[in-house]
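Hey all, quick one. A colleague (J.T.) asked me to put the heme C job into the tracker so the inputs and the C-alpha cells live in one place instead of scattered across chat threads. No bug as far as I know, just bookkeeping. Sequence used:
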Amino acid sequence: MRSLLGVTLAFFVSISFAKNIKKTPISKIENAERYSEETLQCLSCHMNAKAFVYYDWKNSKHAMKGVGCYECHRSDIKDPSSFMHYGFRISTLVTPRKCARCHKNEVKEHLSSLHGKAYFTLSYNQITKSYYLYLLKLMGYGKYTKLPYYKLLIKKNPSTEVIFLPKFLKRKKLSKYTLASLFNNHSCLKCHGSKVRVYKKFVDKVFLSPLGFPNEGVGRINPDGSVGSCANCHPFHSFSIKVARSPESCGVCHKYTYESYKHSFHYVLYKNLSKNLDKKNLIPGKDYRGPSCASCHMGAIYEDDLHTLKYPSTHNVSRLSAWKLLYGVPRKKNMKINKTLSKTYYIKAGKKEAIISSKPLRYSRSLNMTYNLSFIEARKVAMALCEECHTRAWTANYFATLDELTASISKLQKFLLALEKALKKKKVYTAYDYIMIRNLYLKLSRKVTIPAFHENYASFQSLDKFTLELNKYLNNVKRRLGLRTYLSLKRKYLN
Ligand code: HEC
Ligand code: HEC
Ligand code: HEC
Ligand code: HEC
Ligand code: HEC
Ligand code: HEC
Ligand code: HEC
Ligand code: HEC
C-alpha cells in the first residue's frame, strides 16, 4: 500500500532524485575493452560519484574478468527493491540471487548451512522478541518511553531529513516494542541478518526501512526473496578472498569462538606461516601450517598425500559439526532444527511471501531446516580434516575424550531447562529467571564446550567462577521451587 502510494506520488508530483554529475569520457576509462557498454556508463559517473567504490573494485578479480557494476547491480521489475537509475533498472542490494547468476553452488551451499537459516532460528523461537522485552523490564522501563531531545532528533536532524522515517519511529513516546526493535536491529540482527523491507518506492529511488538496513547478516531476508548477504565475509567491492578467509572476518560475529581460537597454537601457526591466501585452492603444509576457521569449516579436505581430494571446499559451514554444540545434542540426519518453524512461518508470512516463491534457486517450500549429516558422518569428515596433518590416533584420542566431556556437560544444560519448566509450572517464573537461565545455559556451550573444540584450555579456568554463579542461582531456585521438587529434578537430570 505504502509503496503504491509512493509510485503515484512520483507520477504526479514528479519527484526526481537525479543529480547533475561530472562525467569521465569513456575513452579515458582504463581497460575499457574489458567492460560491457552498460558498465562503462556506470563507470563514467562513478569514477566521480562514490569513487571509493570504483577504486575498491578496480583491482578485484571481478574487474579483471569484466564483471562490472551493471553485471551485479542490474535488476528487474519483479524485484521490489529495483528502481530506474539514469536509464538502467538496478538495485542497491546485490543479493545471493544476483550472485547466483554466476556462482550457483556457493549460494546453494550457503543456504543449506545454518548460516542460511540464521534469521529464522532467531525470530521464530520467540527469543528475539522476548529477550529485550525481558531486559527492558528488568531495567525498569515501562510500556511507553518518552523520547528525549525530540525536536533535535526528529525535526532538525540531517539524517531524518533525507529519508522517510516510519511513523512508529516518529512518535514522541516509543512503545516498549519499538524500543526492543531498536535494540534488536543493532544487535541480534546484525549477525543473524534482518528482514530488509522496501519502505517507500519512487520511479528512480527506493527507500529501505531503517529497521533492517544497512545489514550484512548471514541469514538476511532480501526483498527479492533470497536469503543471506554474501558481503559479510566477502567485503564489497574488492570481494577479497584473503579477507573472507581470515579468522578475523569470522570473528566479527563469532566473538567467543574467535577469542578462544586466537589462543590456540593453530592460530599462531596460521598467522605466522601462511602465504598465497589469495590463491584459489589452499594446500595444508604448503600454503598454511595451522588451520583457520575457514580452512576447517569450509576448506577442501585432502587425503594425507595432500593430492587426492576427499571433500571439496564448501559454503556449508555445518558440514563439520557432529554436535549441535550450543544445545549439547548430537545431530541426526534430517533432524529438524526448529520443529515449529515451517508451520509458524506459513502462518506469519502467508504463502505469497517472496522467499517461498523464489524459484530460480529452488528453495524448499517449507524451508528445509534440517541437518545434512548425522553425528557419525560428520565425525568422519572432521577426522579426515585433522588427519590431513595429524595421525589417526592423535585425532581419535582428541575426539573420544572431548565428546564424552561434551555429553556430560550437556546434562547440566538440560537440568537448567527442566528448572525453567518447573518454575513456570509453579507460576513463580520471572524475567530474572529468563535472563539467568539463558545466560548460564549459553556459558556452558559458548565458554566451555565450543572453546574446548578450538584448542582453548583457558576456558576451564573460568569454571570456578561459573560454578559459584550457578550455585547462587540454584539456591535461589531451590527456595522458590521447594526442596522436594528441586531434588527430584536434580536426581533425574544430573545423576
Ligand atoms: C549520470 C551519472 C550516473 C550514472 C550513469 C550511474 N550512476 Fe549510480 N549514482 C550516481 C550518483 C550521483 C549516485 C548517488 C551517490 C550518493 O548517494 O551519494 C549514484 C548512486 C548509485 C547507487 C546507490 C543508490 C542508493 O541510493 O542506494 C548504486 C547502487 C549505483 N549508483 C549503481 C550504478 C550502476 C550499476 C550504474 C550503471 C548501470 C550507475 N550507477 C550509473 C550517478 C550515476
Ligand atoms: C560482484 C558484484 C558487485 C559489483 C561488480 C559491484 N557491486 Fe556495488 N555492491 C555489491 C554488493 C554486494 C553491495 C552491498 C549491498 C547489499 O547489502 O546487498 C554493493 C553496494 C553498492 C553501493 C552502496 C554502498 C554503500 O556503502 O552505501 C554502491 C553505491 C555500489 N554498490 C555501486 C557500485 C558501482 C558503481 C560498481 C562498479 C564500479 C559496483 N557497485 C560494482 C556488489 C557489487
Ligand atoms: C556476471 C557474473 C558474476 C556475478 C554476478 C558475480 N560474480 Fe563473482 N566472479 C565472477 C567471475 C567471472 C569470477 C572470477 C572467477 C575466476 O577467476 O575463477 C568471480 C570471482 C569471485 C570471487 C573470487 C575472488 C578471488 O579473489 O578469487 C568471489 C569471492 C566472488 N566472485 C564473489 C561474488 C559475490 C559475493 C557476488 C554477488 C555479490 C558475485 N561474485 C557476483 C563472476 C560473477
Ligand atoms: C555478534 C554476533 C551475534 C549477535 C549480536 C547475536 N548472535 Fe545469536 N548467534 C551467533 C552465533 C555465532 C551463533 C552460533 C553459536 C555460537 O557460536 O555461539 C548464534 C546462535 C544463536 C541461536 C541458536 C540458534 C539455533 O541454531 O538454534 C539463537 C537462538 C541466538 N543466537 C539468538 C540470539 C539473540 C536473541 C540475539 C540478540 C539478543 C543474538 N543471538 C545476537 C551470533 C550472534
Ligand atoms: C562465512 C563466510 C562466507 C560467506 C557468508 C560467503 N563466503 Fe564465499 N568464500 C568464503 C571463503 C572462506 C572462501 C574461500 C574458500 C576456500 O578456501 O576454498 C570463499 C570463496 C568464494 C568463492 C571463490 C570460490 C573459488 O573456488 O574460487 C566464491 C565465488 C564465493 N565464495 C562466493 C560467495 C557467494 C556468492 C556467497 C553468498 C551466498 C558467499 N560466497 C558467502 C567465505 C564466505
Ligand atoms: C555476519 C555474521 C557471521 C559471520 C561473518 C560468520 N558467521 Fe558463522 N554464524 C553466524 C550465526 C548468526 C550463526 C548461527 C546461526 C544459527 O544458529 O541460527 C553462525 C553459525 C556458524 C556455524 C555453526 C554451524 C552449525 O551447523 O552449527 C559455523 C561452523 C560457522 N558459523 C562458521 C563460520 C566461519 C568459518 C566463518 C568465517 C569464514 C563465519 N562463520 C562467519 C554468523 C556469522
Ligand atoms: C582445527 C579445525 C578448526 C578450526 C581452526 C576452527 N574450528 Fe570451529 N569447530 C571445529 C570442530 C571439530 C568443531 C566441533 C564440531 C562438532 O563436532 O560439533 C567446531 C565447532 C564450531 C562451532 C560450533 C558448531 C557446532 O558444532 O555446533 C562453531 C560456531 C565454530 N566451530 C566456529 C569456528 C570459528 C568462527 C572459528 C575461527 C575463529 C573456528 N571454528 C575454527 C574445528 C575447527
Ligand atoms: C594444517 C594442518 C593441521 C590441521 C588440519 C589440524 N592441525 Fe592440529 N596442529 C597442527 C600443528 C602444526 C600443530 C602444532 C604442533 C606443535 O606443537 O608443534 C597442531 C597442534 C594441535 C594440538 C596440540 C595443541 C597443544 O598445544 O596441546 C591438538 C590437540 C590439535 N592440533 C588437534 C587438532 C584437531 C582435533 C584437528 C582437526 C579438527 C586439527 N588439529 C587439525 C596442524 C594441524
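Adding what we noticed when we looked at it: The mean pLDDT is 87. DSSP finds 25 helices and ten strands in the chain.
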